[in-house]
UniProtKB/TrEMBL annotation:
Protein name (record): NACHT domain-containing protein
Domain of life: Eukaryota
Nephrocystin 3-like N-terminal domain segment(s): 48-216
Domain DUF6593: 673-829
Organism encoding this protein: Leucocoprinus leucothites
PANTHER family, per database record: AMELOGENIN, NACHT DOMAIN-CONTAINING PROTEIN
Keyword Repeat appears in the UniProt entry: yes
UniProtKB keywords: Repeat
Keyword Repeat: yes
Length: 838
């Protein structure tokens, strides 16, 4: 009793001086406290919301204040405790100094004891804190020290509300927790504390206590707060990291910080300049810990030089070890978070984060595969359990969609500082992401996907859908599943083949090649080609617009010259014929329809390019091939869209069934997604497709036509089906199903027909000789065509094709506005159906 009284008197004296509960619980160290004060004029909205809850909300006695790491939750907690004052504040508990969860309830009880004599007398009479309290379970402690005296016996004065504030609860450890394997004990203890508080708040609504629990939005804490027994007790308040007010508050803090540094270091009034201040503020966003680290780092040395180190770090340059990281506290916070990931899970975590980093580095949005957490998992070959296990400790630094949303949303970085930390090995050390290693792993996964999809050649020839085993099965309709699988296959084809090309970027729009190069030996490249069914290698891997045709065929030619015997041993020389090498470096490949011809029959490495027979020339039948016949190509295209038919458009000798482009009107077409594209010429934008999501879950696309420099007219409104398929279209005053504009025409494989505004029938069809898509009138005269091109960057956007209108062809009416509008609409629908195999 005397010992308790002595400690109580000590606590009483120190709390009156504004100090915390030091020396009451053994091992409780407050040397790092209190947290920094709130900067004047910041966090006003958050503080107003907390005040409103405390003074007005009588039903929800618990406030869960949560937010990402470094956002300033402890500072907000301290500010609120200062505002309510010592007469209302019953306990302020900083859990990140809690080495044992059994300390929490006794510490709170001792603090409450000095707010009322009745409760203090109860504690002195009933409890010997040194010998009994620490031997009780947390539940027994809570009942003995909180529930019984406050809830049942009402020993607190009822004149006002008492505030108990628990800050950084996620850092409170379980008893004797000293390793990652024991981390489950800490989580269980934290969840138990929340459950006890929530049960008390619900069971004793008249008790004059309100609780503020401040923490990061950890997965286990979100789970306990979402429990039905806990939900009625609390109100949630999220501290944002990137909203307008948070960013403005951080900028206000930085402006004051730089002013203080100017004064203390006698710098000119214009330092650091508005551009550098803006850059630091934008990098900090709403993360106060980032801004505080920057201030401390610049203050410690030559401000001008230190600021340059900060700016370099913001740009992603590796930290200069000699001067230390500018983000000491932030890095320590991130290191602590990463250290909680179990060792046997870390490899999967690195794969997922590495894939996310690579998506950030490759400024490339793929039309065919909408990235979600589910799609990422299937690319990496991870199932749902493995994904969430790998990410379970990262909820405070990542947005992680729930399983219900994982098919639509992906993980993302709420703040770029964690992204930069992972990328900089000098800061994150063994937690850093080895991007080349992850990139190579992804490439191997693409190989596995393609091996599986291409193993049955007959299935491809019969145009059956490819079968791919998914590690994370998809939800949704059959159409949506097949649409997604088609996207995954396209993604695998596109990137897999690019990795084969020596000196080729991993993506055609990579910011910096040095960040994630994939180093493959010639043998690895050869093994890769051998592992995939080569008959299906060409189909869809390289379209003219990919921009890498020359490099890819140079690679194949090099393989033939250096590894001819190996190719023959693997049977590859019997699967294709190289029928021409042009000066441009292209090699046209097509499959022999009548007989298989060995490589050696058609290409001799000792021959020069000029000596090689061109595809358009007559080849000696004794050499094993027939005279070139366009009908043979058309027959071939009906079986599978081999690269020979796709490549002939760029051959100098290719034969078009259209008139010269000199008599055409040409509109450049931006964007791989035709629903989000513009059609323009030298006069400006003539047509614009604009797609948006409606409230009912359906998306709609509007086609606008420019009728003057500053005015557009709506041509058509396309309302897509809920599953993303064809819906209905309003064009002019007519409403009809989209399918009426893309009816399959059985007379020509892959063609779609529609009735034009003139009452005549038109048909879109693949060209029999090149990659174009032709529009024929009722007399089979080509009046327009879409010509795919290599991606070409314009200020208005990347161009992927051209829409040609042949002014004088047919009836000569294709340029009349109603017909022209219909051509644009149906061309878009044809490309959409072609992309999704509708």
């Amino acid at each position: 009793m005397e010992r308790f009284q002595s400690r109580a008197d000590t606590l009483h004296r120190r709390t009156r001086k504004g100090q915390a509960m030091h020396d009451v619980i053994p091992g409780f160290d407050y040397s790092h406290f209190p947290p920094p004060k709130l900067h004047p004029g910041t966090r006003t909205t958050i503080m107003d919301k907390i005040n409103d809850w405390f003074s007005q909300d009588s039903k929800r006695k618990v406030l869960w204040l949560n937010g990402p790491a470094g956002v300033g939750k402890s500072t907000i907690s301290r500010e609120f405790s200062d505002r309510v004052g010592t007469q209302t504040l019953a306990a302020l508990f900083f859990a990140n100094q809690c080495h044992d969860h059994v300390e929490v309830v006794p510490t709170i009880a001792l603090a409450i004891a000095f707010t009322t004599e009745r409760y203090k007398a109860y504690i002195v009479e009933k409890i010997d804190t040194s010998s009994l309290v620490t031997e009780m379970s947390v539940e027994e402690q809570f009942h003995a020290l909180i529930t019984n005296p406050i809830g049942e016996e009402s020993l607190l004065d009822s004149g006002g509300a008492y505030l108990i504030l628990l800050d950084a609860l996620e850092l409170c450890r379980g008893r004797q927790t000293s390793s990652i394997s024991d981390g489950h004990l800490a989580k269980a203890a934290q969840m138990q504390i929340i459950s006890l508080i929530a049960r008390f708040a619900v069971d004793y609504p008249s008790a004059p206590i309100k609780w503020v629990i401040s923490s990061r939005p950890e997965e286990h804490l979100k789970a306990v707060f979402s429990h039905p027994a806990v939900q009625p007790s609390y109100r949630e308040l999220h501290v944002p990291i990137s909203d307008e007010e948070a960013c403005g508050d951080v900028r206000l803090y930085l402006e004051a910080a730089f002013q203080s540094i100017r004064q203390s270091h006698h710098l000119p009034s214009h330092w650091p300049g508005s551009d550098k201040l803006k850059k630091v503020a934008e990098a900090a966003s709403g993360l106060f810990l980032f801004a505080r680290d920057v201030k401390d780092f610049i203050y410690r040395g030559d401000p001008a030089a230190q600021l340059e180190f900060v700016l370099s770090a913001i740009d992603g340059s590796p930290s200069i070890i000699l001067f230390g990281s500018p983000f000491v506290n932030l890095d320590a916070s991130y290191e602590h978070i990463m250290s909680k990931i179990p060792t046997n899970v870390l490899a999967d975590t690195h794969k997922i984060l590495g894939h996310l980093l690579l998506r950030e580095l490759f400024i490339s949005s793929n039309l065919f595969l909408r990235y979600s957490l589910c799609s990422t998992a299937n690319i990496l070959g991870l199932d749902q359990f493995a994904v969430y296990r790998a990410l379970s400790e990262l909820h405070s630094v990542l947005y992680i969609p729930s399983p219900e949303l994982a098919h639509k949303e992906n993980i993302r970085f709420p703040h770029p500082s964690f992204y930069l930390y992972l990328k900089d090995k000098t800061r994150s050390e063994h937690y850093s992401i080895n991007l080349p290693e992850v990139n190579k792993y992804i490439w191997k996964r693409y190989s596995q996907i393609l091996q599986e999809a291409n193993q049955d050649v007959s299935r491809q020839r019969q145009k059956r859908k490819p079968v791919i085993t998914l590690s994370w099965p998809l939800n949704g309709s059959k159409f949506e599943k097949q649409k997604w699988i088609s996207g995954l296959l396209y993604e695998a084809k596109y990137h897999w083949a690019h990795f084969l090309i020596p000196q080729c970027l991993c993506s055609d729009k990579l910011i910096s090649r040095s960040l994630a190069p994939v180093s493959l030996s010639d043998q690895e490249r050869l093994d890769a080609v051998c592992s995939i069914n080569f008959k299906n290698l060409i189909d869809g891997y390289f379209a003219e617009e990919s921009g890498h045709i020359e490099l890819f065929f140079a690679f194949l030619r090099g393989l033939w010259q250096s590894s001819r015997k190996v190719l023959e041993d693997h049977g590859l020389s019997e699967k294709v014929i190289f029928s021409g090498l042009r000066d441009s470096g292209y090699v046209e490949i097509h499959e022999s329809m009548d007989q298989e011809v060995p490589f050696s029959k058609t290409l001799n490495p000792s021959e020069s390019i000029d000596q090689v027979v061109s595809v358009s020339e007559t080849i000696n039948p004794s050499e094993g091939t027939k005279e070139f016949d366009p009908s043979q190509i058309e027959k071939q295209a009906s079986v599978s869209s081999q690269l020979g038919t796709r490549m002939s458009a760029i051959q100098a000798h290719s034969t078009r069934t259209t008139v010269s482009s000199n008599s055409n009107d040409i509109l450049s077409w931006t964007n791989q997604d035709p629903r989000e594209s513009r059609l323009f010429n030298s006069w400006g934008v003539l047509y614009r497709f604009q797609t948006s999501d409606a409230k009912n879950g359906k998306s709609s696309t509007t086609l606008w036509r420019a009728i003057s420099p500053n005015k557009e007219d709506r041509v058509a409104q396309l309302e897509w089906a809920t599953n993303g398929g064809l819906g209905r279209i309003v064009i002019g005053k007519n409403t009809l199903p989209m399918s009426d504009l893309v009816r399959e025409d059985p007379r020509v494989s892959g063609s779609r027909s529609f009735n034009g505004p003139d009452g005549l029938r038109y048909r879109w069809r693949p060209s029999p000789t090149n990659t174009d898509i032709q529009l024929q009138d009722a007399n089979n005269i080509v009046v327009a065509y879409f010509h795919p091109t290599r991606p070409t960057r314009y200020q208005i956007g990347d161009v992927y094709g051209e829409l040609h209108f042949i002014r004088e062809a047919g009836a000569g009416t294709v340029m009349h506005p109603p017909i022209m509008d219909m051509v644009v609409v149906t061309a878009m629908l044809f490309r959409f159906c072609q992309a999704w195999n509708l």
